[in-house]
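Q: Structure tokens for this one, please.
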Amino acid sequence: MKLPFKSSKAFLEYCNSQFSPAPKKGEGRPAMVPRSGFMNIENHVSVMEDGRYRVSLMVCGCPEGFFTISETPNPGGEPIASGDLLIWQAFQKPPFFGKGLIGNASGDKRSSWVGFIVAKIAPEIDEAGKFTILARYP
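A: Here is the predicted structure, written as tokens:
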């Protein structure tokens, strides 16, 4: 049995309450591609010259998540669009002092975490708390 959510936004709001504020290296967290105009950015998804996706994301975490920019590890894969739910995997902590470049822009040190987009998911959770994976970005 799966618990479906009415929207990607509702799913992310629920996930915010389920994850601690601070990411841990290697941890996968749900994230959402914002709508056009969020943080004055018109297009949150771009395809780089080598075919990888670069995406602005809202990553879940108590209390209201955090904004970051991330990429897929390899070229190709399922197209990514505004409103999509993704799994962002934390890779490297932000600098010890200061907030880092993106953290300074967003006002949140968590925004300077380096991470990768590893999957696209549906806005639902099963009885064990697992996400429904629609596509992987290996």
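A few notes: The radius of gyration is 14 Å. The first helix runs from residue 8 to 18.
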